[in-house]
Design a protein that fits this description.
The chain has about 300 residues and is an alpha/beta fold. About 45% of the residues lie in helices and about 10% in strands. The protein is built from 13 helices and eight strands. Helix 2 packs across helix 3. The protein is globular, with a radius of gyration of 18 Å. It starts with a helix and ends in a 7-residue tail after the last helix. Homotetramer; dimer of dimers. This is 4-hydroxy-tetrahydrodipicolinate synthase. It is an enzyme of class 4 (lyase). GO terms for molecular function: 4-hydroxy-tetrahydrodipicolinate synthase activity.
């Protein structure tokens, strides 16, 4: 086992893919980001992903991305692993962001499959290996074909596992058969990339979750993961059933960053629910649907 793989526990088991808070006029609110990071860690997160998909990274400038890395590191560095979302569909750009993140002192990198370009599997492998070789940081691959248009094939992932810095996978494609093969043939550590499948993933061997619903139900997800690790399947099932309408509210009604910001506003965690175009805030019908889901879970807000 390589030195990088020995660092895997430092990446955490409950990671929230943080939203990027904005001011009312659309600027990144670094103070709110720091406060949110502190709350998430206090409530049970031992890792945070900064400016991933939910962090609206595709509409942030490089300086805004780097500013978020600094703000979160200053707020909770040493208390939780900080994973920087530095993957883009441009390998050279991803290398640049990754190297800048490393200079800031980030603990790891989340690299998404290159989107839109639609490369071959050879291109996918070369993309990941080039970025992974650009720093000494541990890398978590992000397999999400619903957004990237291509999946990481099992053979590609098995090959990537040979790279000393590629140590983990955030899986958002739910191909359990493919993942079983990769788990059996490599030391890659898997994380659920689908909030609603956390129990299923962990039962199969994943170590935890990189989630969005974890913004609004952090402590219950912490309890779910701890219950699985304690082999208390009955408790884990009960919490999983309880969380289902919360996951539905956060992940299925509108885009995840949009829903998470709206709920965090209702919870009084964020002062607003501002997102950047092309994302828009939920309309009244969507708001009522989200509120209905949350009420089903016993989360009713007088707003």
């Amino acid at each position: 086992m390589s030195d990088s793989r020995a660092q895997i526990p430092a990446l955490g088991t409950l990671l929230t893919a943080m939203v990027t808070p904005f001011t009312e006029d659309g600027k990144v609110d670094y103070d709110q980001a720091a406060a949110l990071a502190e709350k998430l860690v206090q409530d049970g997160c031992d890792g945070l992903v900064v400016t991933g998909t939910t962090g609206e990274t595709s509409t942030l400038t490089d300086e805004e991305n780097l500013g978020m890395f600094r703000a979160v590191k200053e707020a909770v560095g040493g208390k939780a692993a900080i994973i920087a979302g530095t993957g883009t569909n441009d390998t050279a750009h991803s290398v640049h962001l990754s190297q800048r993140a490393a200079q800031i002192g980030i603990d790891g990198l989340l690299i998404v499959t290159p989107y839109y370009n639609k490369p071959s599997q050879a291109g996918v492998r070369a993309h990941f290996e080039t970025i992974a070789s650009s720093t000494d940081l541990p890398v978590m691959l992000y397999d999400i074909p619903g957004r990237s248009s291509i999946a990481i094939a099992p053979e590609t992932m098995i090959g990537l596992a040979k790279h000393p810095n590629i140590v983990a996978v955030k899986d958002a494609k739910a191909d359990f058969a493919a993942a079983t093969r990769v788990m059996a043939e490599t030391d890659l550590v898997f994380y659920s990339g689908d909030d609603g499948l956390t129990l299923q993933w962990m039962a199969m061997g994943a170590v935890g979750l990189v989630g969005v619903t974890t913004h609004v139900a952090t402590r219950r997800f912490r309890e779910l993961i701890d219950a699985v690790n304690a082999n208390d399947l009955a408790k884990a099932r009960a919490i999983n059933f309880e969380l289902e309408p919360v996951v539905r509210a956060t992940m299925t009604r509108v885009q995840g960053a949009v829903a998470a910001k709206q709920i965090l506003k209702w919870q009084g965690v964020l002062p607003n629910s501002v997102v950047r175009l092309p994302l828009v805030e939920p309309d009244e019908a969507e708001i009522q649907t989200i509120r209905g889901d949350l009420a089903e879970a016993g989360m009713d807000f007088n707003v």
